[in-house]
Fold these 4 entries.
Entry 1:
Amino acid sequence: MATQTTDAGHRFEDRRDAGRRLAALIDRSVSGERVVLALPRGGVPVGSEVAGAIGAPLDVLVVRKLGVPGHEELAMGAIASGGVRVLNDDVLLLAGVRDEDLAEVTEHERQELERRERAYRGDRPPVSVTGRHAIVVDDGLATGATMRAAVTALRMRGPASITVAVPVASQEALRAMREIADDVVCVTSPYWFRAVGEWYDDFAATEDDEVRALLAQAQPPPQRQKPPAPAARTTSSDPLATLIARHAQAWRGDARDFAPLAPLVRTARVVLIGESTHGTHEHYAERVRLTKWLIEDQGFTDIAAEADWPDAWRVHRFVRGEEDDADAEAALGDFERFPRWMWRNLVMRDFVSWLRAHDDALRPEDRVGFYGLDLYSLHRSMDAVIRYLDRVDRDAAARARERYACFDAFGDDPQRYGYATGLRGADTCEAEVIEQLRDLQARTTTSARVGPFAADDRFFAEQNARLARNAEAYYRSMYRGAISSWNLRDRHMGETLDALLDHLTRRRGREARLVVWAHNSHLGDARATHMGWTGELNLGQLARERHGDRALLIGQTTHHGTVSAASDWGGEVERKRVRPGLEGSYEALLHDALGEGVGRALLVLRGGGELTQALRPQRLERAIGVIYRPETERRSHYFGARLADQFDVVLHLDETRALEPLDRIAGWEEEDAPETYPTGL
């Protein structure tokens, strides 16, 4: 949707006048927090007026072009505030830019960008845009090249939406902005356009001193330093809620959030970050923000997620520059099975773009990988094994085809195989998948690729063969009991995590450190929940058993809002309203403790202090997977847990909103389970 007033005769007195006229067109009905980001220097006086009119914070978004060496006027990419880089692959290829030249130009421009940010902002941290509606302002657009780079870079920082707002622009530039921004606001777009300055009576250059003064005016008055706790004042008379409020640490959306975590992750080898639903925007966005910090500041080397191995491998190859996909959305294209929105969503698209840009700046051996831990991809994994063997050993490929043909009688649906073998007594393919795995593991040849990553191809193939073995057992056990199939699945994820740590450590020549993404039900220690009390285990328990205190378990909770979920397994994604946490649940307790309308705080539970002791007794806890049935919520979505033993850290986000799918359908636009195959978690 674009808001635009076209008046070929409209002129502005100066940038302040332009900002006031632009502010009058900004939609005041938008719900949620907003932030104004101005392109320096000319955009800052305009942005100052807009920010003041709508009551939003103001910050600068510095963009630096990366010029081709020897032809600096030709842009091969850009960098922007927030440590983001975007590249023009076509220009890089046509100009024959070497990696070392790109790195040198990037470093030079990064130093200049940081110098300018210090000059404008001083010691103040940048304003967080994560989950907020970002309004990007300049004094006008001629070609729109700088704004395009700014929007592309900003998208990787996880805003809820991006609005491009300018007083004047060429019609060509406006058309380009509509392709990349969520909204475009422009006061005038004349048919004949030569230069931005022609539409101002006073278009004098904006000096650095004016930029600094306007940014300083936009800051709240300085306050005395306060201790990090409490995050919020509680009006509850419950002593436990008062205790939580005293210990909770505010989650502000800036770099200060990570200070309580730094001592815990310094020696960690695996940090497991959970979510209480598979469809909450804030769970995904904050997990991404934590992951970026762990990678950039804490030395973590790779990411492993509750995703199918071959589907995640395509993303892995894209972010490392080994896949031909045009962009991040294309790289997510193998996530086709239900629930697609769990990985094909806006937050994931933007994170994959960021990870590609991050990896592009590193040596190939230092690039961060993205791997899947799950086992639902039985047929895709068998196909991947055969494709690998076709490249390296045709006879071995023929043997693999013969063994995996055992599944042909059951079609492409592994559930049919599970039903026929688990309930109807049909012959199984267990011996065939075990034999194929052993055959592949016994091979002495490497892949067709040579160089330092030849072992990756073989590891990928072996892991697919291992997955086929474990998936065969999983689908066969599904119809015999939920505990058996759950344990098989989480043991597989634990085996995969261990195999990744070992393989990546050997390949890198130094210890691999992984960030793990999955649902709370997989990452919170099962021994502290009803799962463990009834014989189930999970990945969090296995990680603690292997790594001890070097495994850090972070859970996320929410009290109310909306969520993306289906009503039945295999159904379409819907945007559903999440009911407030039940009385007696951790969700309700944290809501009461943190106060109405505040509700974003971190609880550090590792250490055995009074907060840990207070949160050790059992309470109800909510889990929403890919299915949400509010009409049977107590039975379908709550279980008993001891929070302080389940997690080392809990991030509570009181009000949250639905994760936005890439493949949106009409049902998702309209806001408004015991789960069977499988649990939906």
Entry 2:
Amino acid sequence: MRKLTAWVALAASALTITGCSGDSGQRGSGSQDSKSPTSAASSAAPTPRWAAVKGTPRTIPAVRSFKADDGTGWRVSKNARVVVPDGQDSPLADEARRLAADLGGLKLSWQDDARPGDVELTLSGKGKAAKENNAAPASTADEAYTITARDTRLTLTAPTDTGVFNATRTVVQSVRAAKGVPEGTIEDRPDRAQRGLLVDTARKHFSAEWLEARIREMADLKLNQLQLHFSDDQAFRIESSSHPEIVSADHLTKAQVRHLVKLARELHITVIPEIDSPGHLGAVIDKHPSLQLRSAAGVSQRGAVDISQPKAAQIVDDLLREYAKLFAEEGVPGPRWHLGGDEYRALTVQSPGTTYPQLARAATKKYGSGATVSDLTTGWLNDREKTLRKAGVKHVEAWNDGFHDSKVVTPAKDRTVAYWTGKEIGAREPVTYLQEGRTVVNLNDEYLYYVLGQPNDFTYPTGERIYKEWTPAVLRGSKAVPDALAGPDRIPGARFGVWCDLAGSQTTEQVARGIRLPLAALSQKVWDPRQPQLSWTDFKARAATVAPAR
């Protein structure tokens, strides 16, 4: 029996074929379509035989339920195909092609003719959600899936193509780890709907190729959100037609962004843009110095715009409208957007109204005699959110220190809180936002902040700490909020943040290596609420096998 040369491409994934009956001959690396009942690909084939796949599926994140049955499980064999009974127009067509390629170049069938050795992809859902291609899931139920390995066949079933995609990642990882899928049934779904990575591309330029590799790495781990913080005091990193003057020399072109958004959508990942304001706008101010916030004494604040000036709002709104179109996901509801809102320097002094009288005057003029600088700042974010919603954005969030103690103007009621710290002036406990009825996404800077150079008492987070100590309920420090407020409906998930405060401290390659295990640990903890079964040592070893570095 000759080895199958198509598997050379999967050597990096530790994938080999052994014990397959009738596997003589060579197969090309590209997948082929089987369309005709009379084609060789769809003709009768003997039942393949192989050594039994033993144990439970070995994946990251671990599957939540596996019921073993008697049998040999499923392995890739010479005549195996990926079958989509609903045809090439099915939302599962791209999932089928990707899985076929990932498994070494399997053939494809677009009809209801699954046979021994095949992998069949089917949709169990009804209505609009089941018919849409690469649509953002409405809930974790849309991401659930079932895998059945029985009588040498493998069946992947889910209510949406997102669920089927998740199932294909489980199959690929199981093949990497055990060269197949054990006999039985996997029932799996995520605990939290939002699972992701944030990258600060403003302070440090990351190439499109680097970001693409992270998107593929995230897909391996069933992570589904990538937040790009591309504007800050140091640089503005995406091409702009409305304000080209603010764009830094090293930046992503719009064509590169479109490619990344398209790839992410195909891998069921949502890209979340962030233009932080009214602080962290130094790159804009550098080209528009008249917008710099200055105190009554003439002292300027780096990165802070003077929000009493209409031109400041005009420029930011221009950018929001421009990038809302750029990041729009074709065929799915409007994208998510992060407004920033953190660390506005006007609110870090003891008496904002006295220090910045122009802001105090603007507040009372716009909102009445009782309004303060906090009200003006809250109104600024509300106005920016209105701009985004007019542009079609459906979900808006801001940092927790962008929710101010304002008396006259309140933050938009459906804005999500991205909780990162409790160290700011006037810090509020995360439980207060939950008690207000807000949803809170976890970006806890104690566990989930990878800050280059480790300034201000930050230390590089480890996968081990996340794996052993952190849960989505741990929003601030190491203390969890009460269980009654910690459910997936209140804390929908978490993101791991890469911040480039001291940009030269690590190369982009070092960053990729440094975040690999923390991302794997995060994926486990947001997927399954139970205590992990593996020791950290075993989990780390599994990650090396099923989620190789990219």
Entry 3:
Amino acid sequence: MLLESLQSTVEEVNIFSTSDLFLRQRLKLVESLWESVLKAECGQELVDLLEKLRKICSPEGQVTDKPKTSINELIEGLELNEAIRAARAFALYFQLINIVEQHYEQRDQQLNRRATYQESEKARNNHAKEENKANGSVGADLLEKALVGGTENQEKGGTFHWLFPQLKRLNVPPQQIQRLLEQLDIRLVFTAHPTEIVRHTIRLKQRRIATLLRRLDYAEESFRGMGLSSSWEAESIIEQLNEEIRLWWRTDELHQFKPSVLDEVDYTLHYFDEVLCDALPQLSQRLQQALKANFPRIKPPHNTFCRFGSWVGGDRDGNPFVTPEVTWRTACYQRNLILEKYLAAIEDLTEILSSSLHWSNVSQDLLDSLERDRVAMPEIYDELAIRYRQEPYRLKLAYIEKRLETTRDRNNHLANPEKRQILTEETPPNIYHSGEEFEAELQLIKRNLEETGLKCQALENLIFQAQMFGFTLTQLDFRQESSRHSETIEVIANYLNVLPRPYGELSETEKVNWLVGELQTRRPLIPMEMPFDEKTIETIETMRMLRYLQQEFGVEICQTYIISMTNDVSDVLEVLLLAKEAGLYDPGTSTTTIRIVPLFETVDDLKRAPEIMDALFKLTLYRAALAGGYDYLDEAKKEQLPPPELQPANLQEIMVGYSDSNKDSGFLSSNWEIHKAQKSLQKVAEPYGLALRLFHGRGGSVGRGGGPAYAAILAQPTGTINGRIKITEQGEVLASKYSLPELALYNLETATTAVIQASLLGSGFDDIVPWNDIMEELASSARKAYRSLIYEQPDFLDFFLSVTPIPEISQLQISSRPARRKSGKKDLSTLRAIPWVFSWTQSRFLLPAWYGVGTALESFLQQEPNENLKLLRYFYLKWPFFKMVISKVEMTLSKVDLQIAHHYVKELSQPEDIERFNKVFERISQEYHRTRDIILSINEQPKLLEGDAGLQRSVQLRNGTIVPLGFLQVSLLKRLRQYTRQAESGVIHFRYSKEELLRGALLTINGIAAGMRNTG
């Protein structure tokens, strides 16, 4: 067995600590089931082949001393069906390991939380104040040790029960904590970026296996508690696991068709249905418990301090399939999902709230409400009045249920274009027009219960959900690329002949002056009959759809309009002008119902961002739009006016993009430019009395801003968070964070803890000028090294296209969105950041996440070797930003395998290219070793990840098995590309079709993605 061969060197590689016995036991069980299924389905021959392939590598992932020619002969000699079965088997193995690890993490977090709670109880029960503090510290230390394998680093606390005792020990003023909690605003935005390679069908099977593992835990705990060594319940569950894995083996892993946008909506929002709707109330409860234990007089934040958004169905940047109609149907889908959740909760409440008038009183306001309902819905009264004549809560819930059903039915009809017009003009009676109306009825029941001394947790949870999700489930963000708006304005202006020359030929100053003039007049710019091209009409209709959605669903459904590739002030004003034409901006009052969010992505745009925003803030009409209208700029009038429609007022949201800045400039330069831009933007906003909400466009991989959210938030510049942050969550990250309830809660809690911690306990190191100067030098040097390879090495593009599976990745049916922004020439500028990162991950280079860092650090160290090394070590200890950068590079380097990467180069290059491609590889190899050695010098560790036992274990668990899958991929890619070249020449000598070969190659991509736990 693979695990047994792994265990033979456990002491040497130290994969498992003594606290990981449970994980080892579960891995052994799952691997045994895996082998059993493969033997039953394919015979002992496959199991023997896998073992033979597995012995190619050591447990650390290095190819053994066996001649590589024999390895190649073994792989190349496999029949296509044998190679495909082996690839599928390894892919299944990795996905089973991932499930077990997630299950283990969730179980560990539950045990740690229980231990921490017990420690906090001890502290509260101790009347001596100093002992109370000490016990609280013990609880935090216990949690930290459990979570990170014994490290003493307090930065890794990450939970409410760690945070609030820490704030108390540091004597943070309660008033300061209270102010922060009042403005606490954390927003996590789910996107449809194509990094989720696993089919939805497979995800459901994974969830069933996770559920069975949880049941197995309970069964084992029960029979061990009774002194038994086994039980029929456990054996039955293990048999069910075997059946699930066997069914999984017979299921196709590849997407059967290119998903539509609405398919992506379904895939993404099912996390709300399965986990988040029920888990989120617990997040608020946990915060309140920890806060009350340490600061009983501080009022907790509103329940909606952590909210969710979605781009799925609203992000049209480069995706022609996100049409206005698709966006409308997405909003209907969202509302239907949450209404169904509410209906299920009302059904449960009807079971619970059985109080009788014989034994409990009710207030007059509830009786009055029941009378109004009787008049409005006599059919419900006639049907249920006798059954519930003494049970007022059940009768009230019956009326609520009927209104919800009517609201849901109307919503389902709205998704039908033929019925939409009638329903928007003629609203049926007895529906809820908003989530607030629904919540008000629940609050009425709650007040009545409280007045009679009762409390109902299920009702509390439903009220929380109504406040959190309303009738929209989540905010739907719109996004479009800046050039689409410029092109639309140009087409309209040219048609009307209102400019002395074409709009595109105007200078930036001329554009801004004309746009400001148009924004101050009520005269419409767009004619009723639109004699324009399809793209122009679609852009105009998108704005009109946004207004239509707000009219039907309320302003909360979509308030954010993101402009990707923002380059100038005019990019923002163009969107505001189109919003005016759609009725979303009133030029007379300068009021608007949308927030326009510029997205700064490239390094040059990030550098210019403060200048662009300052120019915008200087425009009175723009400042008024942020404030809520011209009247709100007048301090004397402002006090007499109601709150503006968009809350909070005077808030500017700005998005910073990690993906394109990294592809453009490399990891270190990208992160530093984003860091600097945030500080500069904060300084620009402050004189205008504006608050910033920074929106981080993070991906799943390190090369696109990914990595642990807790450390990333703490590494943000001091003074830039202030209780507010917005972050994208995408692709495989959703599955890793939100598949299981306890994992979801843990990730949400650590993110919230980090925001509070970073806002109240900023380090101040970000403002040390000499440190900033050094980072500027390092970033500039890293950028130069990165670009000299990626954009200036003449052979690099050919190298990339040949030695990575980028051509095949573009054929994966994992997204409705094209792999390139624009069709035409296949160069790096048009390639999206996700397939760029994805391909380097598959071939084990992981180039975008580290290249250039070693050169920059080495150059700095050469100036003053001893002194500068001491300085970098001090940065690593004290400066959260620098530590985050170094830690991410270290984690990425641990997944790099130059041995297998060189195999890709050697086998996939054409004979005439070998010499020039080997030169490129040697350059990459030198940079890898340079970077690795300097990183280890800075963190003073003997090998990568030595300071993070959990992550080291996770990487090592996969390294020993992922290499043969890489060999299989290379073999299948080689055959596929040979077939393609033969087809181009017109003479094909192949036993297999191109479709069969492509299928095999794509299956290996699936498997390696599962093994790396990353795609793009």
Entry 4:
Amino acid sequence: MNHSVDSSRRNLLKFIAGTPLLPLAGGLAGMVSSSVFAADLKASSVRFVPMDAPTLSNPAEMATTTVKSSMVVNYTDGSSKTFKLGYKPFFVTGDMVADGKGGQILAGGYFDINNQPIMNTNGKQFFSDCPDGSSLLSLKDAKVDGVKGNPVFAVVQFEYTSRDAEGADMYGKLPSPIAILSLDQNPETGELSLVKYHNVDTSGVHGLWITCGASLSPWNTHLSSEEYEPDAFKAASDEQFQGYSKHLYGDASKANPYHYGHLPEVTVNPDGTGTVQKHYGIGRISHELVQVMPDERTVLMGDDATNGGLFMYVADKARDLSSGNLYVGKWTQTSGKGPGAGDISWIKLGHATSDEIKALVDGGIKPTDIMEVAYKDPSDASFTKIGFGGKPNWVKLKPGMEKAAAFLETHRYAALVGGTLGFTKMEGTTVNIADKRAYSAMSYVYKTMTDGSNDIHVEGPKAGAVYEHILQGGQKDSEGNAIDSEWVSTHMEPPAALIGEDLAKADALGNSAHADKIANPDNLKFSEKLRTLFIGEDSGNHVNNFLWAYNVDTKELSRILSCPAGAESTGLHAVDEINGWTYIMSNLQHPGDWESPLHDVVKDTLDPLVRANYKDRFGAAVGYVTGMPELG
């Protein structure tokens, strides 16, 4: 290559480093040309040009991850450039991938407490069809054999596996794996390639339970989740929990339900290995996707449950989740129209260290040591009626057990002390730092949000909505004590463009919610540089689930990706900058998970295609959105 082209390439790379630009899977071909790539040229705004929803006119597009959207970058000199987006998987679960030791390992594979493979009914190792939360990060001192460019790490967790080889339901019956992927980042194109797959040893934290959404902490660790905490009052007779214990320990009665439902944190080592710890003081709830605020102390949490709550944790020290105060939100409704709106105040549940709560669990505390629970009205005024998991419970706290109740029976205790435990499937949470706003995905607005059984009494829709939080400082809890945070939610209300629309009658394809609006939002991530909120769906109302981009300035909602029919959009992580490149991580899970009547129109056509793409429906993809320049 001659000197002038080398110079242009250098200028272009400088330009890229200062611009929110997605990685170019096709390299720099066609881009190194005119003076439009001057080194001082900056992006002024970004717009995502939406794609249409795929239809049966092209069944192949409905049976895989399809990206036909693009991104327009507007520059400070008034020019713009359009980049066509695409999708690149690192692997489909069930693939054999490099383990970094000269051998191979099963992607998404399950391991027991002794780190031995857990075997399926066909004699082969179980692997997940449900990859979920992911984080992308870099370390200054990283060094991984086989990486030729920049070492970058992705942490990926696997929520569950849908079925065994015989087709029997396996939901929640296997200990969730977490893997660290060592990736080779091409310095010229930003393209990421898998070099090493490391399975994190979770035996020291008693294994992991249903790891769903995740986020990257401000201090560069992966904040995982344990969703749908097992009910300790029923664990001894619960088939799911007994199955989990059997596969993890080889003993159906050994696992302790109080070891699960917490917040795991994964720290990545420079060589691509990692360690995990659980934080026992952040509330034992249906953890989904938490968001740590810029103060590096305040954690805003959704709660993916029926009779769920809005929870907040304020750590005593920055970058340390081992000790702090736990709060539950109180909703004071300001509008009941549609998904409604409400002011938020806060009730302090208690202060604890992770170690002291873990010591209670390890010491053998039983649920009956903490409180009495009745499932029918005991006609006893000393019991309080609450909602729990969509059903009534009557609870009575044992004397002196407030702290144990707050951190081990968080749902029941939060309801008992007056918190609003009426949200339905509040999932992903993310923050818009510049505007001091946060966002929470309410996957479905129904049941306890619409039945008048608690503080919340709104109309819907079942297709859900994304609520925006106003974040403020100077707040006090219900006892009049100051809350030591500048990032406290004081009001929740969904932007108009982020409300789903239920259809009175399904459309021709089978959608029961409007296909050009969000339905049942789940994963959320906000990009500060792109000024864009990304929204992934987990919908029982869309035939294909979509990934959306919502510009908070223009209020434009753009569909940018379609998952294979029956699959959920998971693993969303918007990364503003790693070595000059911007990334959107995106996984999918359980492709071809057919529901009736939702998929009745498409199933016969799409089922063989999905089976061919995803290992007979046992596999699912882990990957990221790519950006390729339009040429000509």
